[in-house]
Design goal:
about 475 residues, Helicase, Ruva Protein, domain 3, five-stranded parallel sheet
Length: about 475
C-alpha cells in the first residue's frame, strides 16, 4: 500500500476532482481534495502532501499557477502537476517555469495518471532512502550525532574529542546497549585517523580458533578449509582504528596474543612465520567489569593496564532519563520513514511509560521498542497501546512501586491500580457503548485507527462490545 504518500487534488469541477481522487485511491494512495486554490493553500499549510494535482483555470482570483507558487513557498519539496483543458505551448512553458513537475491535459487517462504518480513516487522513495543513508553515515562518522543532553555524556564527548588524535588505547566500559561502538566511532572520526579504516570486531561472536584467524588472518593450508591466505582485521585496520567489542570475553591464549600486539605492534598470521607489522589504534569495549575480572583471575592484569590507558565509562540509560524523549523521537523519525509509517509524535501516556521504565537493554532496547510501536501504529501519534506489552507491564509495576513507597496522599489518590490492559479494555468498551456500537466513531473518540480498534477487540476477546463485561 502507498497510504503514507499523501496526494491533494485541486479542481473546481467536482466531478473531475472526485474522479481523479477515486482513481488514485484505487492505487492505494491517501487522497484529499480542494475545490479552490485558497482551500488548497490552506490544506498545504496543515498537511505535507507529496504530490499536488492542480487545475490551471479556477475561479476565485487564484488560478493554478498562483496556487502552485503559494504551495511551493510552503512545501518546496512537493511535486506539482498542472491539469488543463487548454493545452498550449505558452501555458506549458509558464507552468514549468514556475516549478510544475508535469503538465497533463483533460480528459485525464487513468493509466497515464497511475504511471505518472508511480514514477514520481519511485523518485521520492530513492530520495528518502538517500536521506536516510546520509543520516546513517553521519551517525557513523560524526561525534555530534550522539544524542544526549546529559552532563556525563557531554563530558564523554568532550573527552573523545580531546583524545581522538592520540595513539593511546581507549577502554570503553558500559552495559550492553549503551552505545559503546558509537562512542568508539566518535573517537575515530574526530582524530587524524578519520579517513582511514574503522574495523569493528565482536569478540563474543566467534569461537577462540575462529576469532584468532579473524583478528590476525591465516596462511594457506594452516587448517582445514584454509584454501588461501587471508588478511586479518588488524591488517585491514592498518593506519586506522580497530574496535574490539566485548574484549572481556576473549580466551587466555588470545589475551596473550593481544598483549603482544599492543606491546610490539606486530603479530603472526595463524600458521605463518612472517611477522606482520601494523599501525593501528586500538579501542576496546566491554560490559564486563574488568577490574573484577582481574581480581578473580579471569583477565590478565598486564593486558588490562595496556587497554585501560584512557578509560570511558558510559552511564546506563536509567541514569540519564532526560535523554529518553530525545532518543525516542529520533528513532521514531528514522524508523517511521523506513517502515513507511506516518508516526510524528508520541502520546503523553506512552512517553510516561518510556520514562518510568528502567531499560535493562538500554538504548538498543529503546530503539527496538520504538520500532515495534511504529510498526503497530495506525496514525501520526504513537499510542500507549502501540508499545510492547512487556514494556507496558513494567511501567505499571514501576508506578505501583512508586505509590507503595509514596506518602499517604499518593496512596489515597491511587489505593488500587488496575493493569494498563484493564484500563485500555474499559476505555474501548466505554467508547463503543457511549456511541451505541458505532466502532468507527469510537475509534475516532479514542484517537486510534479503525484497524487498531478491531485488533484490540480481538486481543481482549471482546465479541459483543455492547454486552461483554
Amino acid at each position: 500500500m502507498n497510504t503514507h504518500w499523501k496526494i491533494l487534488v485541486v479542481d473546481d469541477e467536482e466531478v473531475m476532482c472526485e474522479s481523479l481522487a477515486a482513481w488514485l485511491r484505487e492505487d492505494g494512495y491517501s487522497v484529499d481534495t480542494a475545490s479552490s486554490g485558497r482551500e488548497a493553500v490552506e490544506k498545504a499549510g496543515q498537511r505535507d502532501y507529496a504530490i499536488y494535482f492542480v487545475d490551471l483555470k479556477m475561479p476565485g482570483g487564484m488560478d493554478g499557477i498562483e496556487t502552485m507558487m503559494q504551495i511551493r513557498r510552503l512545501r518546496p519539496e512537493a511535486s506539482i502537476i498542472i491539469i488543463t483543458a487548454y493545452a498550449t505551448v505558452d501555458t506549458a512553458i509558464a507552468a514549468m517555469k514556475e516549478g510544475a513537475q508535469e503538465y497533463i491535459v483533460k480528459p485525464c487517462n487513468p493509466e497515464e495518471i497511475s504511471l505518472l504518480v508511480s514514477r514520481i513516487i519511485k523518485v521520492k522513495n530513492l530520495q528518502r532512502e538517500n536521506t536516510i543513508l546520509r543520516k546513517k553515515l553521519s551517525r557513523q562518522y560524526s561525534a555530534h550525532d550522539v544524542i544526549s543532553k546529559n552532563p556525563r555524556m557531554r563530558q564523554i564527548l568532550d573527552l573523545a574529542s580531546e583524545v581522538a588524535s592520540l595513539r593511546s588505547t581507549v577502554l570503553i566500559q558500559g552495559e550492553s546497549g549503551t552505545g559503546k561502538e558509537l562512542i568508539a566511532r566518535a573517537v575515530h572520526a574526530s582524530g587524524d585517523r578519520a579517513q582511514k579504516p574503522f574495523v569493528a570486531v565482536s569478540c563474543a561472536a566467534l569461537a577462540e580458533t575462529l576469532l584468532e584467524s579473524e583478528l590476525f588472518g591465516h596462511e594457506k593450508g594452516s587448517f582445514t578449509g584454509a584454501t588461501e591466505r587471508k588478511r586479518g582485521k588488524f591488517e585491514m585496520a592498518d593506519g586506522g582504528t580497530i574496535f574490539l567489542d566485548e574484549i572481556g570475553d576473549i580466551s587466555p591464549k588470545l589475551q596473550v596474543d593481544l598483549l603482544r600486539v599492543l606491546q610490539e605492534r606486530c603479530f603472526y598470521r595463524v600458521g605463518g612465520s612472517e611477522e606482520v607489522r601494523v599501525d593501528v589504534r586500538v579501542i576496546a569495549a566491554t560490559h564486563v567489569n574488568l577490574q573484577v575480572a582481574v581480581a578473580e583471575g579471569k583477565f590478565r592484569d598486564d593486558l588490562f593496564y595496556r587497554l585501560n590507558v584512557i578509560e570511558i565509562r558510559i552511564p546506563p540509560l536509567r541514569e540519564r532519563r532526560e535523554d529518553i524523549p530525545l532518543l525516542a523521537r529520533h528513532f521514531m523519525e528514522r524508523l517511521s520513514h523506513e517502515l513507511g509509517k506516518d508516526a510524528r509524535e508520541i502520546s503523553e501516556g506512552a512517553l510516561k511509560i518510556l520514562m518510568d521504565y528502567n531499560w535493562p537493554g538500554n538504548v538498543r532496547e529503546l530503539e527496538n521498542a520504538i520500532e515495534r510501536a511504529c510498526a503497530m501504529s495506525s496514525g501520526p501519534l504513537l499510542q500507549l497501546g502501540d508499545l510492547p506489552t512487556q514494556l507496558q507491564q513494567k511501567g505499571l509495576e514501576a508506578r505501583r512501586a512508586a505509590v507503595a513507597t509514596g506518602d499517604g496522599l499518593a496512596a489515597a489518590v491511587a489505593p488500587e491500580l488496575k493493569t494498563l490492559a484493564d484500563l485500555e479494555r474499559e476505555a474501548i468498551l466505554g467508547a463503543i457503548r457511549t456511541l451505541n456500537g458505532d466502532k468507527l466513531q469510537a475509534a475516532k473518540l479514542l484517537g486510534i485507527g479503525k484497524t487498531t480498534l478491531y485488533r484490540k477487540l480481538k486481543e481482549y476477546g471482546i465479541a459483543d462490545p455492547l454486552h461483554d463485561e
